[in-house]
Amino acid sequence: MSETSGRTVLDAADICVSFGGVRAVDHVSVSVAEGQVVGVIGPNGSGKTTLLNALSGVVPASGRLAVEGHRVRLGGPERSRRAGLVRMFQQPQPYRFLTCQENVLIATPDRRARGLGSAWLLRPRMLHIERARWAASLAALDRVGLAAKAQVPAAILTYGEQRLLDVARGISAEPRVLMLDEPSAGLNDTETAQLLVLLRSVAADGVALLVIDHKIDFIDALCDRITVLETGQVVAEGPPAHVWQDRRVMDAYLGTAHDA
Ligand SMILES: Nc1ncnc2c1ncn2[C@@H]1O[C@H](COP(=O)(O)OP(=O)(O)OP(=O)(O)O)[C@@H](O)[C@H]1O
């Protein structure tokens, strides 16, 4: 793990989300550089998922969002997606009756020329593009260790494999920012360690990662920086070693043993 000094890819400032009288996210700012992994931790109900929802455009939010220096208007999932934000959910969400490869293929950007002219006149080119998409989908499955299961239905994968399939789909969507909500949930220690290596390799490709998780060892080993939320507000931020020294974080995560 190293703290990168790449250019900023995700820059979110002053993000606020309210549900009726509840301010779920309260003036939260977070930025992630190219190749960097930023963790978001905090107690249940502290606003972590809602922050990701705001950045993905699926809940009404105020504040400013920029991806690679380009402003993205909040509140539109398509706008966030077009800007390069890709979101993975708490529960793996494969299409259960499609094969693993088909699951990845439908997450792959489709750059085919459209229209009747394209369909016929550009046929050789389209075939070439389709072959490349199929090869890329297999490469993504290989990268997460699922190449041997490319042709089996997603329904028969274990829970851990479904998570890996989700990561393969995320990578194939060519994200600039990959946002993961509790990716290690339900994984055993070996699977969690494999996921850590995989996510670091995705970051090494230059993708900016924003990761919510409750497993502190996983977050500590994975992240370059950590943002800690409590009741919707940032209460600590910085490299892991700095954040773990924060008294509020110690109280919340390490109990009161440090007082002894
Ligand atoms: N759609 C919604 N409608 C009303 N309130 C909501 C909604 N979504 C979240 N909340 C509230 O917003 C606050 C933050 O919830 P959120 O799910 O973002 O927390 P979290 O930190 O992700 O929690 P957890 O770790 O349990 O997933 C909570 O008080 C929650 O009840």
TrEMBL record:
The keyword ATP-binding applies. GO terms for molecular function: ATP binding; ATP hydrolysis activity. Pfam families: ABC_tran (PF00005), BCA_ABC_TP_C (PF12399). Keywords: ATP-binding, Nucleotide-binding, Transport. SUPFAM superfamilies: P-loop containing nucleoside triphosphate hydrolases. It comes from the Bacteria. One of its GO terms (cellular component) is plasma membrane. PROSITE patterns: ABC_TRANSPORTER_2. Residues 10-256 form the ABC transporter domain. The keyword Nuclease does not apply. This is ATP-binding cassette domain-containing protein. It comes from Yinghuangia soli.
